[in-house]
Write a structure and sequence with these properties.
4 strands; alpha+beta; single chain; 198 residues; Alpha-Beta Plaits
Length: 198
């Protein structure tokens, strides 16, 4: 269930979930996993930390250590969703997936249509949880990493076998497909600093 609650803090570790419109498998359909990684790169470039993630066919779970900056966390996430949406729509158009495009166009509210929005790629809001303890962070990492192996998904036999996840790094110590910042080290980082030392 999406939430419209504003995140008041400007820094901290948050468990974020972004869901495709009506749970459509848009990342799978467009092979758009790299689009999410590009967003992660952008976040890193601006001093934030990707500490764990899984990219599923129709949603993303990610643990982000946000460094304090001028933009609110809600704005940072909103901008990321916009960037990913443009790229996904471009690929759907290139693939000639007209029925999917029509569905995404029909999903736009009349209010958003007046503002010039053409497609509803993601659910209008996003889920978030403030992670204030190591125990809660571990719980969320376990949830993220188990996601591809449970319920209806069955995308992998074991969490380490699913490519688009930080599970391999956390469970084996081997580098995964995308480099993450180990959450155990976040205790040593001051997320309110204006600059992060390399």
């Amino acid at each position: 269930m999406s939430t419209k609650r504003q995140i008041v803090e400007s820094s901290g570790i948050y468990f974020i979930t972004i869901t495709c419109y009506e749970w459509l498998p848009l990342f799978e359909l467009t092979n758009g996993y790299d689009i999410v990684y590009k967003w992660f790169d952008y976040l890193k470039k601006h001093g934030h930390y990707i500490t764990g993630y899984v990219i599923m066919p129709n949603h993303v779970h990610v643990l982000i250590g946000f460094r304090q900056n001028a933009k609110s966390i809600n704005t940072v996430i909103g901008n990321g969703k916009r960037f990913m949406a443009y790229e996904i729509v471009k690929r759907i158009e290139q693939a000639g997936e007209h029925s999917t495009l029509t569905k995404l166009m029909e999903g736009v509210s009349s209010r958003d249509q007046k503002r010039g929005k053409l497609h509803e790629v993601f659910e209008p809001s996003f889920d978030w949880k403030d992670c204030r303890s190591n125990r809660f962070i571990k719980q969320k990492l376990d949830y993220i990493h188990d996601n591809p192996c449970r319920g209806k998904w069955n995308l992998a036999e074991s969490p380490v076998d699913y490519t688009h996840s930080s599970a391999r790094f956390y469970l084996t110590g081997e580098p995964g497909f995308y480099k993450v910042f180990h959450c155990g080290l976040l205790e040593d980082i001051d997320l309110t600093r204006a600059t992060i030392e390399k």
